[in-house]
Structure formats: C-alpha cells, structure tokens
Amino acid sequence: YLPRDHAMTLPQPDPAAALARSAIGAMFFSLFGGLWVAAWCVQTYGAQPLRLLPVAAITVLLFMLAWRQFSRHRAAHAAAEQTPQAKRAGRLFNMVNAGQWIAIFIVGNVLKNLGLQAWFIPAVILIVGLHFFPLAWLFKARRHVAIGMALCVWAIGYPLTVRHGPMHPIGCLGAGLILWVAALSAVRAGFAVQQSALPPQK
User: Fold this and answer.
1) CA-to-CA distance for 122 and 181, rounded, in angstroms?
2) 3-state secondary structure string across 56-67
3) Which helix (H) or strand (E) holds 129?
4) What count of other Cβ atoms lies within 10 Å of the Cβ of residue 114?
C-alpha cells in the first residue's frame, strides 16, 4: 500500500522527457488510428489502393511529426527511463496493455459463442477506451482521459444511432479519427512548448 502522496507512479518529469513521452504516444495513436481508418475504408470501398493512399499519407505524416518531436528530446527521455519509477511504470504499462489484449480475446470469444459477433468492433473500441484510464493515472496524462472517454462514448453511442447498428463501418472510422486527433493534439502541444521554451536536445 502506498501513501496518498505516492499514489502516482511517476515523479514530476523533465519537460523535455515529457515531450518525448507524449511524442511516443502520438506515434502509436497515428499508427493505430491509421489501421482503424483503413479498416473503415476497406469495409466501405473494398481494398482499393487509391482509396487507401490518403489514409497511408495522413498516417505517415502524423507519425513523422511525432518522430521529429521525439528525436529532439531523445536524450532527456533516455535519461528519464533509467529511474526506478520509470522502470516500474514501464512494467505497469505492459500489464495494462496485456490486459487489454486478453480482454479483447475473451470478449471476442464470448460474443462469438453467443452469436453476437456483430458487436465485436464496438466491444474492441470500448476496451481500448477503458485501457486509457489507468494509463492516464500512470503517466499523469490528462489527454488519455479525454481519449478514453471519447472512445467509450463512441463505442456505446454509434451502434444505437446509425443504420445497421454495430455492423456499420463508421465505427472503425470514428475510432481512427479520435486517435488521429489525439496524435495531432499531442504533436501540436509539443510544438507550442518547443517554440516557447525548450531548446532541442543534442
């Protein structure tokens, strides 16, 4: 049991290290957002390269912007990752991530056995959204709370409001756009801080 003042896993980070960590998140958001939007595109138009090309282009652009931010502060991130708190946070992150995939596997099989396969995509979006809440606590990232809430609301709301319910491809599109917006938000916030205060890391 940890006292209240030690409940958060990470100490107050170096701003440069925090920017690097935010950029890592943005890289993941851009890639997974691209996968969700690509899934929508294939479901809607079929596997047409010309339809998928803009999706790939946006994904690569967001990823490269995030990579540029990470590269500027890589040294601060490397130093911060050597602390015991950061190593513990890494282990907890792996546990949360593993729990997410285990939950998806279990829920997918339960839905299949119940004949409710159509609800698999909303269930995945909901699980992904829920996994952001412990990450928000772990990394002191308020942005993760907003992402988690948006994904959860979307997972519950779109099947009840669109035609064909949970089978509608718009579920994948909405999830992807939420993650892309999260990536852009992280990069934009990092760019603003870099312009106002922080020198690049050598």
Assistant:
1) 19
2) HHHHHHHHHHHH
3) helix 120-139
4) 9
Q: Whole-prediction pTM value?
A: 0.85
Residue ranges with strand state E in 29-144: none
Tokens of residue 172, six digits: 């994948």
- Residues of the chain predicted below pLDDT 50: 1-11, 198, 201-202
Q: Which residues of 33-64 are buried (b: 16+ CB within 10 A; e: fewer)?
A: bbebbbbbbbbeeeeeeeebeebeebbeebbe
Distance CA 127, CA 156 (A): 11
Which residues, other chains included, contact 186 with Cβ-Cβ below 8 Å and sequence gap of 6+? 22, 23, 25, 26, 29, 66, 143
Residue 5: the pLDDT is: 41
147 contacts 179 by C-beta, under 8 angstroms:
yes
Q: Which residues contact 86 (CB under 8 A, 6 or more apart)?
A: 10, 80
